[in-house]
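Backbone-to-sequence.
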């Protein structure tokens, strides 16, 4: 009788990671195919399926990081597509609300962050309100590994679009100044970063 082959921990990790990456590759291909055909909702469904791979508890931090990076690259493609569509005037009504119907919280929050960034870049909503909403919603994931990577995605996605202006005097300011106040200030950016960092510390 042939001896039973037992996979080492490293081999098992490589096998699990390879299977997850293959599914990411397949789902991202279908996502891009749907986006090319302007089938956004179908594309978001495949994006959600792809993001479901991040629900795993089987991968080591190193393997999870590799999976996270592969998925982040694909989400960037979705973000660029949405920004392009919005800039062409092909806006999808209530998209920020629609992605909140994703079946599981992990895909839901990654999609919410991606769409939230698009809304900010296209001036669809108050930057201050969206950032506040996103950092609070991420509290829904309390698993240490999944939560840390989710909050890292939030930080990496928003680092170049945080409010960077000083708060204007609302009484003296004109309409554009008040709009700027609603968009947030440097103080709001600091609060956002510190709150996100504080929540990350709680996950260790």
């Amino acid at each position: 009788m042939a001896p039973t082959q037992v996979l080492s921990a490293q081999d098992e990790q490589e096998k699990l990671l390879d299977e997850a990456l293959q599914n990411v590759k397949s789902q991202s291909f279908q996502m891009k195919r749907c986006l090319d055909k302007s089938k956004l909702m179908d594309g978001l469904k495949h994006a959600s399926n792809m993001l479901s791979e991040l629900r795993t508890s089987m991968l080591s931090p190193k393997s999870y990081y590799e999976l996270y990076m592969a998925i982040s690259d694909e989400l960037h493609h979705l973000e660029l597509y949405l920004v392009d569509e919005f800039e062409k005037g092909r806006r999808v009504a209530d998209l920020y609300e629609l992605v909140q119907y994703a079946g599981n919280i992990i895909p839901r929050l990654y999609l919410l962050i991606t769409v939230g960034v698009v809304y900010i870049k296209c001036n669809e909503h108050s930057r201050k309100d969206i950032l506040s909403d996103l950092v609070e919603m991420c509290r829904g994931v309390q698993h240490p590994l999944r939560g840390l990577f989710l909050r890292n995605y939030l930080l990496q996605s928003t680092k170049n679009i945080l409010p960077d202006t000083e708060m204007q005097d609302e009484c003296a300011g004109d309409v554009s100044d008040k709009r700027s106040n609603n968009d947030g200030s440097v103080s709001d950016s600091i609060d956002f970063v510190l709150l996100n960092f504080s929540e990350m510390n709680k996950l260790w």
